[in-house]
Amino acid sequence: MPNASPDLQAIARQVMLARGFHPDFPPEVQQQLQQLRQHPPEITAGNGIRDLRNLLWSSIDNNTSRDLDQVEVAEALPNGDTKIMVGIADIDAYVIKSSPIDVHAASETTTVYAGVRNFPMLPEQLSTGQTSLLEKQDRLSVVIEFVVDAGGEVSADNAYRALTRNHAQLQYNSTGVWLESTGSAPAKVAASAPLQAQLRIQDATAQKLKHQRHEQGSLDLETGELTPLMHGDQVVGLVPEQKNRATELIEEFMIAANGVMARMLEKVSSLRRVVKTPERWDRIVQLAAQYGERLPSDPDSKALSQFLLRRKAADPDHYADLSLAVIKLIGPGEYVLERPGEPAPGHFGLAVQDYTHSTAPNRRFADVVTQRIVKAQLAGKSNPFSDNELSGIAANCTAKEKAARKVERDMSKRLAAAALQNRIGAVFDAMVTGVTPHGTFVRALQPHVEGLLAQGHQGLDVGDRLKVKLIRVDVQHGFIDFARA
Fold first, then answer.
1. Which architecture, in CATH terms, is 281-333+417-484?
2. Residues of the chain with CATH 2.40.50.140
3. Cβ–Cβ < 8 Å for 206, 248
4. What is the chain's alpha carbon radius of gyration, rounded to the nearest angstrom?
5. Residues 374-428: pLDDT tens digits?
6. 3-class secondary-structure state, position 8
């Protein structure tokens, strides 16, 4: 055991710098923040801004989240359909295009979650304060409205500016167990019959949306990501992230809302979020064959979705590992410029043709860009971005998202190494997650930690199963080395 535990907070900052980020805000950002403190935007209705504070808006997010991007409310319609409204934080009202805060956000493009600390894209005075849709606070929002029918089909798309008020700030875990009837209601929910009814409507509608997406071929993927369990500055364990009905509720509403925004912008140049057809489909076919299943020779998201659902039902304990292999073979998403009349490649994983990012502007710059284009369209103004600007933004957002994934991966390895310091020599069931010129990488199944297969990697490919022995960890550098057992 090392004599002293490394400073994981300092390591996180070093990793950010190494991956091309600038975690410190420049002085001109502080000056702009001071101006916003003294002269905040006027939070009033009128001039195209509706007053919707009386609606029973609520939010559901992680237990520790303060950078709240969205609130939701539902209305049961007489014909059996449901109207959903998703309020999105109006970042553009506070962060003017080309201002110092905007320039910094455009460079960083994303909030990075490094396990032991977060590196926000926007200063926390905004992202966890003035622009966060916090409970009992009046906030400017862009509302995305749509109607969901009994079959989960979305219609009546609309968007507009509004004044909203979050009446209940809820958390995924406690709300999820109540929705699933496996635990009691959170105090705020238990105290309000109208809120209970509201959340039940939202949950039922989300499940219809989920069913419809899967019918179209959307992929239900789980990665088994781990969250560090901290005691002070020490990592004492790794806790798997869990999906539940509350996480699904938000996921379904955000996917639907992003589709609405994409369709609204079909007549102007805008950003799209795409996941192209997998280049390694042949390997996905081989993986399915290992389970006695046959997939078409040409990429088919619906066939893949049905295969994955069958495997999840047959072996839920190992489904995250199969999911991870498929995710690696499909490849990451990217941002692209879409001009009017030029269809984007679509999103293979979600089985949708029109998709953008618009629902997390406190955390993603692409969403701020989309918000500005939509607001300009609502106001009858020209697009605030040229095609060249959008093309450059798309490329930078894609590159920084890739860099952010590397930061998160680098830190997850360091956190995992810290949690495994005392388990040298232990043997784990594992799966191959990557075969690159730099080496073969495996992921232990319990706990789900990834490392280099330093010995015995010949003849392996993504998705292969094997037993590995932990032979070395280095917390400072995030090295976890396995040997074939």
1. Beta Barrel (2.40)
2. 281-333+417-484
3. yes
4. 23
5. 999 999 999 999 999 999 999 999 999 999 999 998 998 899 898 898 899 999 9
6. helix
